[in-house]
TrEMBL record:
The keyword Lipid metabolism does not apply. The keyword Thylakoid does not apply. One of its GO terms (cellular component) is plasma membrane. Keywords: ATP-binding, Hydrolase, Nucleotide-binding, Transport. One of its GO terms (molecular function) is L-phenylalanine transmembrane transporter activity. The lineage of its organism: Bacteria, Pseudomonadati, Pseudomonadota, Alphaproteobacteria, Rhodobacterales. This is Lipopolysaccharide export system ATP-binding protein LptB. Coiled coil: none annotated. Residues 21-261 form the ABC transporter domain. Its EC number is 3.6.3.-. GO terms for biological process: D-alanine transmembrane transport; L-alanine transport; L-isoleucine import across plasma membrane; L-valine import across plasma membrane. It holds the Pfam family ABC_tran. Signal peptide: none annotated. The gene is lptB_4. It comes from Roseisalinus antarcticus. It is an enzyme of class 3 (hydrolase).
Length: 265
């Protein structure tokens, strides 16, 4: 176990038996548009959850409420037992919540390792220091570990602008792993990836430490069902169905909705 993984495990153990996420009665209105309505969701520590649904189902809005990009109109959000409903995004990050976005947010003019180092520095206590890091800098050691976790060690000195789209998605995952997070939200990480890149993504997600839970939004059911312990289906801003991956895959209503189309809000 690496130093980063050990620190994350200790933080997780310190929370006791609290659920990682508890959402109760979450609704989000944009004027007359009801993007989310009455969402109740519980995710255990270390659980890997897939949230599926067609475009407009409310998946990304749900993520934005969990991370603090949007505040819910009604309801409460608890993160490892603490009510974070009104917390801004940076306070949730300090408590160990991370996310990726549908569009990669990277420093394209810097190298892979520099991007990861900046992410590690950004969640550290010394993030505002102007002192140049030493060769034995602990944050650089963490960055070196993370570049291996996402299988980019051979490209660590390469400019991000030279990476393939799939490699940029791998880098974004590494940056989300900075600072020993307790829980991560992955927003469509397989979008636009080739079959080979999707296989690489699955391997990376399955290789994450068992104590590190996540929720993944994904249109590719082959990817989502391989990396999830439990699945939540959404439709028109509501939770439509939940179950194990095999149950969801074989459910005729899910097949009709997900593969056959159904109207979206």
């Amino acid at each position: 176990m690496t130093m980063t993984e050990d620190r994350s495990a200790r933080r997780l153990q310190a929370t006791g038996t609290e659920n990682a996420l508890e959402l109760r009665g979450i609704s989000k209105l944009f004027g007359a548009l009801r993007a989310l309505e009455g969402i109740d969701l519980t995710v255990r520590p270390g659980e890997r959850r897939a949230v599926l649904g067609s475009n407009g189902a409310g998946k990304t809005t749900l993520f934005n409420c969990i991370t603090g990009d949007f505040l819910p109109t009604t309801g409460t959000i608890r993160f490892f037992g603490e009510d974070v409903t009104a917390f801004p995004a940076h306070e949730r990050i300090r408590r160990g919540l991370r996310r990726t976005y549908q569009i990669s947010l990277l420093f394209t003019g810097l190298s892979v390792i520099d991007n990861i180092y900046i992410a590690c520095r950004g969640v550290s206590r010394g993030r505002f220091s102007f002192i140049r890091p030493r060769r034995d800098d602990a944050l650089m050691a963490s960055a070196e570990t993370l570049v291996r976790v996402v299988h980019l060690e051979d490209l660590k000195d390469t400019l991000v602008s030279s990476l393939s789209y799939g490699q940029q998605r791998q880098l974004e995952i590494a940056m989300a792993l900075a600072g020993a997070p307790r829980f991560i939200l992955f927003d469509e990480p397989a979008a636009g990836l080739s079959p080979t890149e999707r296989s690489e993504l699955v391997e990376i997600l399955l290789g994450l430490p068992s104590h590190m839970g996540y929720i993944i939004i994904e249109h590719d059911m082959d990817v989502a069902l391989r990396v999830a312990d439990f699945v939540t289906m959404m439709h028109n801003g509501r939770i439509f169905k939940e179950g194990k991956p095999a149950e969801i895959e074989e459910d005729p209503e899910v097949q009709t909705l997900y593969l056959g189309g159904g109207d979206d809000a």
